[in-house]
Structure prediction request, 448 residues.
Amino acid sequence: MSDTIYAPATAPGRSAVAVLRLSGPRTREVLRQLIGIMPEPRRASLRRLRDPATGGVLDDGLVLWFPGPASYTGEDSAELHLHGGMAVVEGVLDGLDRLGLRMAEPGEFTRRAFQNQRMDLAQAEAVADLVDAETAAQRQQALDQLAGGLSQRYGRWRDQLLGALAMLEAGIDFPDEEVPEAVANMARPPLERLLVEVRLALDDGKRGERIRDGYRVAVIGAPNAGKSSLINGLLGRDAAIVTDIAGTTRDIIEAPLVLAGFKLLIADTAGIRQSDDQIEQEGVRRAQVWAQDAALRLWLVDGAAASGDWALAKDLVGPDDVCLINKSDLGLSADGVAAEAWARAHGLAVQPVSLSRDGADAVLLDLTERVTAALSGADFPAATRRRHAVHLSEAAGHIERALGVLVLGSELAAEDARLAARALERVTGKIDPEDVLGAVFSTFCIGK
Prediction:
């Protein structure tokens, strides 16, 4: 981090204002060469920027100077608020190049903030999530995580582990002192309570990840059940082709939908059936994979049919899914009756619909209630990325092993307690290998 970096913080192209950011030990020196008189710290000041090589005027803009460590990155930093013309921006960028500065890598400003202890790794990830937020729920989750919501939860768990570890190590380090013989067993109750809490967090239905990435809903069923019509009705536009020809949809058609501030990914899938067509077979395979990974499956059945095709998709649904009986206004035929009976017997919610009569509106209302119930919660989610869930699961395994070997002595249990604490520390970046940091910050945009 000895070099000084720069990057545009606004998107390229014609705009009213363009922002360039600088950070590093030479920031003050570079500013003086560009603008002459330094502005007061943390106060926007109008300055004329000149080319350091020719002395020619580059622009009149606002300059903000942030001496370290009281800056975003923790080191000397600055922002240049320029007119947004491409020629203006390119001229200033060329000037910075000539002064020996380097273009920042993706996420390098935030990475420096992390390495200078201005934020932990979970908070740094929240910065990227906030930039990428598309919905109110994503924005709020990112803001709460940036404020320490996730870090505080992991910090509390770590403190509880360290308390139990102190009891275990007391029996190891002072065997001949006046330490109660059962001191190690005093660690069992807090470890058991912590294990319950961590397991409950892991069973939280991937709530944080689904808020961040989108709640995946698969529409499945036999060919010509009305899946594409339902998709179009939910989205309010023609996203999927609707025909009377069976097998029209052969690939996954994903479309985003925002309900109650939450992002959903709705997928129209190929009709589930046996086929000799290799392309359709691949479409059915992809439909099955997408449905298995979805948070919710809407199983659409043609209630007016009597072909027995309703059963082709039943192996993909579970008790928390929804069976939609289409064409219910026409009266149920054999398929509708059989599907409804099977669905109720297996714990599925059953909802009669008529897609020809705005039946999608009722489905949309039910979807809104289900998504809100699934993604709302009083506590901050224990994981907003897959990385968090992996480390939390690792910590749970070590706590469980510590409890299992406690009867054999404090030494083995203490080692597992230490490993559990390290797993939790990896979430906030207290200990983290360089390759993990590279993977995290490579997802950032340049300039952040």
Q: What stands out?
A: Residues 240-250 have pLDDT under 50 and may be disordered.
